[in-house]
């Protein structure tokens, strides 16, 4: 059986942030797999991983990286499936360098980039579920129910 979402990160130290991507996927019943695949330290692993993703039934890749943050762009260059990038806050620039690296992809290599850190990782998981819901009516229904619960959880308040 194929696992539709793969979450990859440049280093094990990225896991505390990237783990947030698993929350909406788990809530919505979407299967996922998480791996460390470094663009710089394991380039051959990245090449094989990204090229084989469609054959393995992967529908969406979520890639988190800090610093130079080449992981998402390199993965996108090697596969035709959607890649969602998550900038990891690190160093002096706290993820701004990663964000700029991810959003400045050249024409023809599309990467959907989320916010820096935990909110971005969470939204990456949600975006992956939304992409899958386009062709999965049951997931679409769960997603719509999830959205309604989110709406219902915000009370109407009168502020004096």
Structure class: alpha/beta
Number of strands: 5
Task: Identify the overall geometry.
Answer: globular
Cα-atom radius of gyration: 16 Å
Percent in strands: 5-15%
CATH architecture classification: 3-Layer(aba) Sandwich
Catalytic activity: 5-carboxyamino-1-(5-phospho-D-ribosyl)imidazole + H(+) = 5-amino-1-(5-phospho-D-ribosyl)imidazole-4-carboxylate
Pathway: Purine metabolism; IMP biosynthesis via de novo pathway; 5-amino-1-(5-phospho-D-ribosyl)imidazole-4-carboxylate from 5-amino-1-(5-phospho-D-ribosyl)imidazole (N5-CAIR route): step 2/2
Enzyme class: isomerase
Domain PurE: 3-154
Structure, described:
This protein has 160 residues and is an alpha/beta fold. The protein has a single domain, classed as Rossmann fold. It has seven helices and five strands. It has helices at 15-18, 22-27, 43-52, 71-78, 96-103, 118-133, 137-152, and strands spanning 5-9, 32-36, 60-65, 83-87, 112-113. A five-stranded parallel beta sheet has the order 2-1-3-4-5, sandwiched between helices. α4 (71-78) links the parallel β3 and β4 (83-87). α3 packs across α4 (71-78) and α6 (118-133) packs across α7. The longest helix is centred in the last third of the chain and has 16 residues, at 118-133. The model has no long low-confidence stretch (mean pLDDT 94).
């Amino acid at each position: 059986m194929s696992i539709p979402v793969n979450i990859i990160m440049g280093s094990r130290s990225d896991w505390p942030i990237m783990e947030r991507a698993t929350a909406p996927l788990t809530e919505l019943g979407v299967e996922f797999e998480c791996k460390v695949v470094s663009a710089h330290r394991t380039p051959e692993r990245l090449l094989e991983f990204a090229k084989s993703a469609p054959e393995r039934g992967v529908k969406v890749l979520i890639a988190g990286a800090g610093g130079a943050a080449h992981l998402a762009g390199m993965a996108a260059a090697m596969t035709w499936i959607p890649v969602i990038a998550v900038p990891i806050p690190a160093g002096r620039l706290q993820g701004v360098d990663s964000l700029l690296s991810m959003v400045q992809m050249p024409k023809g290599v599309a990467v959907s980039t989320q916010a820096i850190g935990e909110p971005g990782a969470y939204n990456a998981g949600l975006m992956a579920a939304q992409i899958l819901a386009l062709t999965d009516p049951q997931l679409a229904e769960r997603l719509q129910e999830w959205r309604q619960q989110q709406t219902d959880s915000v009370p109407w308040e009168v502020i004096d």
